[in-house]
Amino acid sequence: MLLDNQKWYNHPRKNKKGKDQPFDPDYLNRCMKTVIKENKEIREITIHGFRHTHCSLLFEAGATLKEVQDRLGHANSDITLKIYTHVTTEAKRETANKLALYLDS
């Protein structure tokens, strides 16, 4: 989908704001709904949902708060922490393992 987005970025019917402007999120959400409807194995997600997932994956990959804040374009790291961080199943498992290792030592 990202490659398709790049391919169609300058298409006049796809990007009404101009070539240097991002797509309208509503348009992208409609595209996602179409893709999901055609591919039942894909869970429903919005474009903004990808932003949340992207942020969580960055943290899981070891990115710092400052790096994620900058990548998302937030002026204040509090926004990043309050809205975009999610404790994933893997992070919960790692936290439990850290405690177990500590208690065993």
UniProtKB/TrEMBL annotation:
Keywords: DNA recombination. Residues 1-23 are annotated as: Disordered. It holds the Pfam family Phage_integrase. Gene3D superfamilies: Intergrase catalytic core. Residues 1-97 form the Tyr recombinase domain. GO terms for molecular function: DNA binding. GO terms for biological process: DNA integration; DNA recombination. This is Tyrosine-type recombinase/integrase. It comes from Enterococcus cecorum. The lineage of its organism: Bacteria, Bacillati, Bacillota, Bacilli, Lactobacillales.
